[in-house]
Predict the structure of Neprosin PEP catalytic domain-containing protein.
Amino acid sequence: MKFSSQIMSFILHFIFLVTFICPIYSLETSNHQVNQTLRFEKGSQKLNKTIKTLLQQINKPAIKTIQSPDGDIIDCVLFHKQPAFDLPVLKGQISLDSQENSEGHDQINNSTLNFQPWHLSGEFCPNGTIPIRRTKEEEIQFGRKSIPFHERLYEVVTYVQGAGYHGAKGTINVWSPRVENNEESSSSKIWVQSLTAKESIEAGWQVCPKRFGDSRPRIFTYWTVDAYKGTGCYNLQCPGFVQTSRKVVPGTVVAPVSVIGGDQYDFNLKFEQDQKNQRWWLEYGAGNENYERVGYWPFSLFKELNHEANLIQFGGEVVDLNPTGDHTSTYMGSGQFAQELAFKAAYIKSMKVAINPYSYIDLLDNENIEATPDCYSIVGGFNKNYESYIFFGGPGRNPKCP
């Protein structure tokens, strides 16, 4: 085979580059890569150290450890050692709160216990301790609810606004919605808020695989005092919410779940402001107004909520992280639209608010919001069986919701 002089010259030039120039470039590149690797390793070591420090702050030393049948680890932590009392303003309240953590608040029927599968282990935390679900390393970055710019938040709610509210309650049915992306979430909940101060306390159930490590609905609490920008967290993942119950554990699985066209399962939630100490108590239960005090958000967390709330919301929420720009196919509730009604759509019933302390009335002049009704919808009303109610939910992405 014959080569032209131009082709041969090119080949010889290429060999020269490979033989003499590339080793120099490779050496420089190699040094650059080594420096990058060292910086990355130092950054990773610093991050790992930060995560371990946070885990030590959250996962307090346990008096007893319980292995839940569903895979959770429950640590029995001395009441006054829980994360909330890392706040200096709460340290002086420990003795008072210990009295409120007495056996009197542990009287609850078995129907509520059935909603907390960790009880199936047959073990309970001893007096003077509270059960806390152990936080895993991979859950640390999902402790807050801050919404990056690329996320879309969809909510369908009914709300009352304006008056001074001192309580809210409702009965929420439980589903196990499909979540498209592990970092997305689907929730059914109640919000108690102060709009002007941008303060909010929330509770209900949520599915978020990245946050909890699976796709099962879990009871949760949340708080913020700056509209989710830099304060607050879920459950006990930062100092704030004070847990008093030895039987109901925020972050644990809620079971069983409702079935479309079949059995429906729900639980009661109540937010009630203590007029003596201006704390917001969270109570949880199942069946016929049976409640267990889970814990409270202390007076010192807030500027306005420690006096009263001016906005109460009931409904569902989906966080959309679909990178393609299409709407997520994450379900809200059962994945059925609100118009499907009983036995198919998600509901919150027996919705009430307290305008006067400890005195609850049905929702009056409430309004519904559904920003994307072709994706998620809501309907509401009042009847004898459900009292004040809403049905809500939807499948997310569909032909009418691309």
